[in-house]
Specification:
The complex is a heterodimer. Chain A is mainly α. Chain A is 76% helix and 1% strand. Chain B is globular, with a radius of gyration of 18 Å. Classes of the chains: A mainly alpha, B alpha/beta.
Chain lengths: 339, 252
């Protein structure tokens, strides 16, 4: 019964991915870089939030430090291109691995803290890394890295005229991260993550090494967040510390997931689908005045939804389907009596 | 050979001595009851054995391995699994998922683990609530769910901390039956319990704690006549009742 449901869901998901691959064939999309831009950002933010969701949602360790890993990934790719003048790919890998190592090293002491205290500790880490990169001469400090003009194409992962290849790049990232999380979700590791979230003491007494589980989740999450960071720098062609290692990026990871539904598979995608169009359209409509309006609206949305349902939009959807199902079964059981 | 050997365990919290030089052993395939008045240090002893607390003195051997001060998850992996006095269900997860967490300890393949979990659902009579949220269950079902999760880890020794407190008398009977059936399957039990009607008939041995000290260790029939135990715990009235019951049994 349960396995069948999983398979059905996966088929729908597969169809959805194919549709995503076909979207750029629509002429309205192919000719409009603004829509392309929004699509790229939705996929990127959904991927980022899904990476956060592994540790913050499934494992329940709310981290505000993910902009650090995002930034390290961005700097990895950026350094390869700007400083060493090579293709970004080796930098992407090194950046992601470095992010993973940093994540494990800083979370090990932090995992001795629980709940809010863990979240507070991760806040501090963002500030530390922000200052560190500001004064670090080798990575150009506060000046940041500006991309030189290089040849277009997949080798350098850079395009100037069109955003379609970026869209496909983001889509591949999206498929990898969502696929990985789906794989984790239905296997042992996913259950262990949830067990640690629900009750650490029980998890331990059932034979789960909760510290190891948390460290693995954090390492994986940081690795994936760093990949997103690398994509981000290739897309914006510039990086400096306040752009990536700041609390507002950290908050984006968290808020998108919370709005969509923490610890749910589709939550990050839904959250990104609401936040990004809101952010980009308000910016277009109000120009400079508009900056911040998106966050005001987004904040109000979060408050409204959280009051009703702490599990976000996905929680609401589940509630509604449950209600409809019970109503339907009630109707079914009533109807034979009437006949 | 004894499955579990507890030797001279002491545990103090500051100046409070919760366990003082407690020693006993649990033979393979037996049911050992651990009783005593409130605050006698029963749960503390459990926590010392399973590694949640670090014992101040003494050592614990399980299957010949020294498990003193091992972290809880290593103790569980060796096959000594416990339940909690205050139920620890994984609230947001379904009943089935709660149990499969236990099953994953010995089986990393999801399908096989699911099968083990289904079996444990059956054994513990939890079939009807399979897809319910664990947090929505009644206390009786939650306690049984904890037992099912512990069972799914294929333990050698099950340590139950007041798994029948707060249950209705029918539920207590069901639980007793369940424990008897599991004993036949070769699982050893160490049970903390306050309901004497439940523990006395099934136990092979009773260990009595009072103020952190072991005051008696013997067969149930002898324990109910023990003067010190009666003074510390049962009270005169109850021990008479128990003795009458025990007497009736031997006569019949």
């Amino acid at each position: 019964m349960k396995n069948k449901q999983i398979k059905k869901l996966d088929i729908y998901w597969f169809i959805f991915i194919i549709i995503l691959f076909a979207i750029p064939l629509i002429p309205q999309v192919a000719g409009n870089t603004f829509i392309q831009h929004i699509l790229v950002l939705v996929l990127l933010y959904a991927s980022m939030s899904q990476a956060w969701n592994i540790i913050g949602g499934y494992c329940g360790q709310v981290s505000f430090g993910h902009s650090v890993f995002f930034g390290i990934g961005a700097y990895g790719a950026g350094m390869a291109v700007v400083k060493f003048g090579i293709a970004p790919w080796p930098g992407v890998l090194i950046g992601a691995l470095a992010a993973m190592v940093v994540a494990v090293l800083i979370s090990y002491p932090c995992f001795k803290l629980k709940g809010h205290y863990f979240a507070i500790a991760t806040f501090a880490i963002v500030e530390i890394f922000n200052r560190l990169f500001m004064v670090w001469y080798w990575v150009e400090g506060a000046l940041g890295l500006d991309y030189p003009l290089v040849e277009e194409g997949w080798k350098n992962f850079m395009w100037y005229e069109t955003k379609i290849p970026y869209y496909y790049g983001a889509l591949i990232l999206f498929v990898i991260i969502f696929g990985l999380v789906r794989f984790i979700e239905i296997n042992r590791f996913g259950f262990y993550l949830q067990a640690v979230r629900e009750d650490q003491e029980t998890a331990e007494s059932t034979g789960i090494n909760s510290t190891l589980v948390k460290l693995m989740a954090m390492g994986l999450s940081a690795f994936l967040a760093a990949l997103c960071g690398a994509f981000f720098v290739q897309y914006s062609l510039r990086v400096d510390p306040p752009m990536v290692m700041c609390l507002s990026i950290s908050m984006t990871f968290v808020l998108v997931t919370i709005l969509g539904g923490t610890g749910t598979f589709l939550g990050p995608l839904l959250g990104a689908m609401i936040l990004i169009p809101l952010q980009e359209y308000t910016r277009v409509l109000w120009g400079g005045l508009g900056s911040g309006i998106d966050l005001i609206v987004f904040g109000i949305l979060i408050v409204l939804i959280m009051v009703r349902q702490p599990k976000g939009i996905m929680g609401m959807i589940n509630e509604i389907t449950k209600y409809l199902k019970t109503r339907k079964s009630n109707l079914d059981s009533e109807s034979p009596e009437k006949v | 050979m004894a499955l579990l050997e507890v030797k001279g365990i002491s545990k103090n919290f500051g100046s409070l001595l919760a366990n003082n030089d407690v020693s006993f052993d649990v033979k393979e395939g037996s049911i050992v009851g651990l009783i005593g008045p409130n605050g006698a240090g029963k749960t503390t002893l459990f926590n010392c054995i399973t590694g949640i607390y670090k014992a101040s003195k003494g050592n614990v051997k399980f299957l010949g391995n020294d498990i003193t001060n091992l972290p809880p998850y290593r103790v569980a992996r060796l096959g000594a699994v416990r339940t909690f006095q205050i139920v620890h269900t994984l609230k947001e997860m379904s009943v089935f998922n709660n149990i499969i967490i236990g099953a994953y300890l010995r089986e990393s393949n999801s399908e096989k683990a699911a099968k083990i979990a289904e079996d444990c659902l059956d054994i513990c009579f939890l079939k009807e609530v399979r897809n319910k949220r664990a947090g929505d269950l009644t206390i009786g079902l939650k306690k049984r769910l904890e037992l099912a999760r512990a069972l799914a880890t294929a333990p050698k020794l099950l340590m139950l901390d007041e798994c029948m407190a707060g249950l209705t008398s029918t539920e207590v009977k069901e639980s007793v039956e369940l424990i008897k059936n599991l004993k036949i399957k070769g699982i050893t039990f160490l049970i903390v319990e306050h309901i004497m009607e439940a523990i006395m008939p099934i136990a092979d041995k009773i260990v009595v704690l009072d103020s952190g000290i072991k005051i008696a260790e013997d067969k149930p029939e002898i324990i109910i006549r023990d003067k010190r135990v009666i003074e510390a715990y049962f009270g005169q009235k109850f021990s008479k009742r128990l003795q009458q019951k025990g007497g009736a049994k031997t006569n019949g």
